[in-house]
Write a structure and sequence with these properties.
Elements: E1 3-5, E2 11-13, E3 18-19, H1 21-40, E4 45-48, E5 54-57, H2 61-73
Antiparallel strand pairs: 1-2, 2-3, 4-5
Length: 76
């Protein structure tokens, strides 16, 4: 299966022209965790994702790494 980059920078399956399932899973995990952190600490972090993702503030990188690793490993 051949893959290529498109304008948005995502890996795309050439046959279907769709982002890979892994790309979508990682994106959902990252955005979800950043929104969770912003909800828990609105005074130190804000996240907006319409239409692009904008993040302003302090991110708990260790928590973000754990969520991404869990997503790749098939965790919750």
């Amino acid at each position: 299966m051949e893959r290529r980059k498109v304008e948005s920078g995502n890996d795309v399956d050439r046959e279907t022209e769709m982002p890979s399932a892994l790309d979508e899973k990682l994106k959902e995990a990252i955005v979800g965790e950043l929104k969770r952190q912003a909800a828990d600490r609105p005074q130190t972090l804000s996240v907006s994702d319409s239409p692009d993702l904008f993040v302003n503030g302090k991110i708990d990188l260790d928590a973000l790494i754990m969520v991404v690793a869990g997503s790749v490993a098939g965790g919750p």
